[in-house]
Each structure stands twice: as structure tokens, then as C-alpha cells.
Amino acid sequence: MSMIHSSAAALSLLAALPTASAQAAPVLLHASGPFEITIIPAGTPEKEGRTATARMALDKRYAGELAASGEGTMLTAVSDVKGSAAYVAIERVSGTLAGRTGSFVLQHAGTMRGGTSQATITIVPDSGTGELSGISGSLALSVVDGKHFYALEYTLDN
Fold first, then answer.
1. At residue 144, does pLDDT exceed 60?
2. Whose CA is closest to 155, among 111, 117, 123?
3. Residue 37 CA to its chain's centroid (Å)
């Protein structure tokens, strides 16, 4: 057998062997349902130029596959141009997700311009506790007919 054929055969055998670090890809899970939110001003907004900034306390109640409460702090900036604003928030969610009890922290970042909004809400890495230890993923929010809904996409390491 030539050197080229021997090398090709050896590479084929090596490629077929499992590697020590090979792991199955985590399964993407989904949870969704309604939630209620109470936003409580924490102090007086400050206005400078065209923008007012403020701090708010968040109090949420999630229902459905995520039966939990959320508590957090939000910072907002609202322009004097109608429909232009931004917010950031940190929220601790505690309760039960698909039968698993624990907590995790969400990081929010959102903007609104001309009435069009976009938000990125991510589970803070390594923030999961209890049976939710190892959770990662993201959450999307929507409002339909004045009612709030969440859609959570997540993986669990354990």
C-alpha cells in the first residue's frame, strides 16, 4: 500500500473515532405564557436637554410553563420625540420552569424609535440556581390586545 493510501486510511479511522470532548448538542427547549408587570418609579425622573432618565422597580408574575416571579431594576431614557426611548434592566426570576425549581437572572436591553421597538433579553451566564443551574437562553416579549406574553428559548446543562 502506498504512503498516500496508508495516510488516507489512518485519517479515515481517526475521523470515525469519538473525541474525548465530543458531547451531544444541548436540546433547545421552549416555554411560553402570559405575564403581568407592575412598574414602580424609584425617584424623580431627571430631564436634561431632550431626554428624561429614570429608575424603575419591576415586579412581574409569570404564568404557564414558567410559574415564577420576577423582580428587577430598570433604567430608562425617554426622548421628547414621541416613540423614541431606550431601557436596560436586570431581573431575577424565581420559581418553577417545566417542573424544575430555581432562579436565573435576565439582562434586558431595548430601544424604540418611531414606535418600532426591539429588545434583547438574555439569561445571564452561570446565573441559574437549584434545578435551573446551567440554564442559558433568551426571552422574547410581546403585547397582544394589551396583554403581555413571554416566549423563552433555553437549554439546560444538567
1. yes
2. 123
3. 17
Check pLDDT > 70 for residue 10: no
- The amino acid occupying position 44 is T
Residue 105: how many other CB atoms lie within 10 Å? 19
User: In sequence order, what are the residues at sequence separation of 6 or more whose Cβ sits closer than 8 angstroms to the Cβ of residue 11?
Assistant: none
Give yes or no for a contact between 152 and 32, defined as CB atoms under 8 angstroms apart. Answer: yes
Tell whether the torsion through CA atoms of 94, 133, 127 and 32 is positive or negative: negative
What is the pLDDT at residue 25?
75
Residue 39 sits at φ, ψ, to 5 deg, of -110, 120
> DSSP secondary-structure letter at 64?
T
How far apart, in whole angstroms, are the C-alpha atoms of residue 151 and residue 154?
A: 10
The residues, ordered by sequence, that sit 6+ positions from 59 with a Cβ below 8 Å of its Cβ are 37, 38, 39, 40, 69, 70, 71
Residue whose C-alpha cell reads 423582580 in the numeric block:
71
pLDDT in tens, 29-46: 999 999 999 999 999 999
In the numeric block, which cell numbers belong to residue 139?
426571552
Q: Which residues contact 2 (CB under 8 A, 6 or more apart)?
A: none
